[in-house]
Design goal:
Homeodomain-like_sf; HTH tetR-type domain-containing protein; HTH_TetR; mainly alpha; 0% strand
Length: 192
Amino acid sequence: MVTKAKSQADETRQALLTAFCDLYRENPLEKITVQSVTRKAGYNRTTFYQYFLDIEDLLRQVEESLLAYISQKRNSLSVDERPHDLIEDLVAIYEERAIEVNALLGPYGRVHFTEKLKKSLDLSAFHLDSMQDNKYQPYLLEFRLTSALNLFSLWLSRGQDLSVEELIGLVTKLYHYNPGFQELAETKPSDK
């Protein structure tokens, strides 16, 4: 009986999360109300407050859940199994958690989620932290991470008009075959 009640509670909570993400994908946060979420999910306001304090709390829980999922997924892989490019990771995560990704990286997604995501990434897995003595390191890291996230968001907003392979190929070419990036990445401490 307890399992059935927990399952029903999980379904109710997920329905509210999904309704919020659907709304957030199409509306700025300030336009989303408890009433709009509960109406879309098919529940009442009292039910909403059993799970969340307010819309900000709901957003925080969506963000934390996705960040925990990303961290858990990456930590479950050995270093050799981890894909080398952030865009590959984003596509894989998108395939499993599309609702949250669309909302948080969509046109109304908050900038601070992107910042939280960047801070939560293990840079060694992306071969982005090997330039410890390079004065350009913070700029190159920001360029690679931000551009990957922005290209991924653009791909989502354009209805995934490139295949996954084309998107990964595009980002790979932009990163790995960019002579200016390579030159800056190879700057030695004595070049400072």
